[in-house]
Amino acid sequence: MGEPSLAFLGVDSDDEELYRRLLRAGEKGRAAFALNRSQDVRQVQESCARLTTLGLVREGSDGVLHPVPPAKAVEGLVETKVRRLRDDLEGQVAARDVVGSLINEHGGRAADTRAADTGDAIQHLEGMEAVRAVLDELTFFTWAESLTTNPTGVMSAENIAHARPLDERVLRRGVSMRTLLGAAALDDPTTMNYARELTAKGAQIRVSHAPLERLIICDRSAALTPLDPSHTARGAVLIRESGLVSALVALFERMWSGAQELPAAEDAESDAAEALSHLERKVLKSLYTVDKDESGARDLGISVRTYRKHVATLMRRLDATNRVQVALLARERGWL
Questions:
Q1: Cα separations (Å) of 113 from 57, 99, 118, 127?
Q2: What structural domains does the chain harbor?
């Protein structure tokens, strides 16, 4: 009986063979592998680029290939497979309005939003558990725009862990996400790292030195504000009344216009003009392995619009006329 194949996890047989050879032999340069296997160097480079994109290999600054430990590599492949399946299922659920039909069976409202009986337009949500349940529902149905403020400016690791899947869900759909952070964010590395992670995936984030009101607005049709701004854990008010939501959107726009752009991260190891983000490097590598923008965006867990935006930016920076030239010029400059 032969070795178990990784094909069911999306790994091509030739790429899997190269990964297994790396595990057996340790670390070797791509040129050495090309000679050992009597293959064209370009073919090996493309295979290595695909392995890097899949998370099976990482390349050191000296060009030496480092195979990712098997347990971690397979875990990453499984996560990618699950993410794709989740995206597909979420799309089918939304297209078929599954949740909406179930809500209709329960009197036209989700059970989690039935707190104090203040009517459908304004509902009181008691406690953070109820608020988070409603946030899950609102982000699931958000398809156009998400507006959020964080007056304290600081996000704990726990808050980020809860926010990340919700934020990534809307960004994968190409939703326009704008977030305002209080000035304290500038002095908090954890918050700034997460903010830059989101901007790399397509979000717009600004920092305000003026006081902010706590708001979450989805598709300009629903808004959340705290019951008590000084004790947000008490709960929130869910507003669907169009006039009130419009007023809150106008308030957000005023706060947004007075805020500053998120400062760029300093890159001590390379010139700022040529510094690449982690996501931009992934986009460059994907140009070797995929034929369609949709496939590249799906592999990286970002929206097609964000993927194309990064490709266009890279083309301008490299003065390239097409995508093939982008990949070649990037390799010449040592970006890959």
A1: 46, 14, 11, 12
A2: 7-74 (1.10.10.10), 116-261 (3.30.870.10), 272-332 (1.10.10.10)
Contact 81, 319 (CB under 8 A): no
The predicted-structure confidence for 312-335, as pLDDT tens digits, reads as follows 888 887 777 777 778 777 777 667
Neighbouring-strand partners of residue 116: 124
pTM: 0.53
- Please, which residues bridge with residue 216 across strands? 148, 224
176-197 confidence digits (pLDDT tens): 999 999 999 998 888 998 999 8
Sign, CA torsion 323/327/324/297: negative
pLDDT digits (tens, 9 = 90+) for 24-40: 875 454 445 544 444 56
Crossing angle, helix 278-289 and helix 293-300, to 10 degrees?
140
Give how far the C-alpha of residue 190 lies from the chain's centroid of Cα atoms, to the nearest Å: 16
